[in-house]
Write a structure and sequence with these properties.
- By secondary structure, this protein is α/β, with parallel strands linked by helices.
- It has two domains: 232 residues, Spore Coat Polysaccharide Biosynthesis Protein SpsA, Chain A; 66 residues.
- The chain is built from eleven helices and eight strands.
- An eight-stranded mixed beta sheet has the order 7-5-6-4-1-2-3-8, sandwiched between helices.
- α2 links the parallel β1 and β2.
- The protein is elongated and about 90 Å long.
Length: 338
């Protein structure tokens, strides 16, 4: 009887589902019109990843490419089980592609790299060495950029200084896609606009330990750059949003309410001055702009306070509760039956 009980218990243990094996490394590759670069990237990237001796996956996110990138990714995925493809319905931008890669990643360490062959996959082991030393985020620094001197390099240096100064997270090269992250520090990050370059800032909010190392950079061989000067203005506006979220996201009333109180004080002062001029100096209301200023600043104060209250209600009601993402996926390849 005891033996049968022992056998049954053993069978029950063996039948119990084993916990899923967590991949060690996930490489995220946003792809947009890079059909000529994909085969070369896959060859060099997989050579590096296989040499590490660790389990890994490569997640290529096709961001609505209009060339043959998807067909090339299909061929590569058929030959490489570790290559998983997320295909967007249309072009959503690099930030959405990065967000999709993070959402679909299974690794403990996430590595992002461009598909245009300008980042060198051979720098990945250097990133992982720093991760092993205890850093949560390791950012690449393109010390010898092979881009246009003024339109890309000079503008980028200015932008990096401005971002570092405003954010308080000092990096020489925010725009370098080649980065490594611990999954825990970015698993809850939600990215919009052009905010993928600000992931180190988000990670710093969670107390992440961040470092920067020099990495190689190559001139583009195929295709054309997707970056233009218009992106600078988008980055500046997104930086303002990031700064606002850092300081006031959970308490927007501090911004709107502060401006509303300032306007209210200005309204009281201008109204008091208008009354003083009227009853002390005998100056009519119609001869000064003070009554109009009083009314306008009072209305601004009321609107600002009401907007602050409304923002507080929105934050409390919709704070990460919808679960909606900023992209739509048409299909997924090599992800199993999920």
């Amino acid at each position: 009887m005891d033996n049968s009980d022992t056998v049954v218990s053993g069978m029950e243990k063996s039948a119990a589902p084993s916990p899923p094996i967590r991949l060690m490394l996930s490489v995220i590759v946003p792809v947009f019109n890079e059909e000529d670069n994909i085969p070369l990237l896959c060859r060099s990237l997989f050579e590096v990843m296989e040499s590490l001796g660790q389990s890994f996956e490569v997640i290529a996110v096709n961001d609505g490419s209009s060339d043959g990138s998807l067909a090339v990714l299909r061929r590569e995925a058929a030959a490489r089980p570790q290559l998983k493809v997320v295909n967007f319905r249309r072009n959503y931008g690099q930030t959405a592609a990065m967000m999709a890669g993070i959402d679909h990643a299974s690794g403990e360490v996430l590595i992002s790299i461009d598909a245009d062959l300008q980042n060198d996959p051979r720098d990945i082991p250097k990133l992982l060495e720093k991760i092993a030393e205890g850093y949560d985020v390791v950012s690449g620094w393109r010390t010898n950029r092979q881009d246009a001197a003024i339109r890309r390099n000079f503008v980028s240096r200015i932008a990096n200084r401005v971002i570092s100064r405003i954010s308080g997270v000092t990096l020489h090269d925010y725009g370098c896609t080649l980065k490594a992250y611990h999954h825990d520090v970015i698993k809850d990050v939600r990215l919009y606009g052009e905010m993928h370059r600000f992931i180190p800032i988000y990670a710093s909010w969670m107390g992440a330990k961040i470092c920067e190392i020099p990495v190689g950079h190559h001139a583009r061989k195929f295709g054309v750059s997707k970056y233009g000067l218009s992106r600078i203005f988008k980055v500046i506006l997104d930086l303002l949003i990031v700064k606002f979220l850092d300081r006031h996201f959970v308490k927007p009333i501090y911004v709107f309410g502060g401006f509303g109180l300032f306007s209210l004080v200005l309204s009281i002062l201008s109204g008091t001055l208008a009354l003083w001029l009227k009853f002390v100096n005998g100056i009519s209301f119609v001869l000064t702009p003070l009554p109009l200023l009083t009314v306008m600043t009072f209305l601004v104060a009321a609107m600002s306070l009401l907007m602050g209250i409304l923002s507080e209600m929105i934050v409390r009601t919709f704070y990460e509760s919808s679960g909606r993402s900023s992209y739509l996926v048409r299909e997924r390849i090599n992800f199993g039956n999920d």
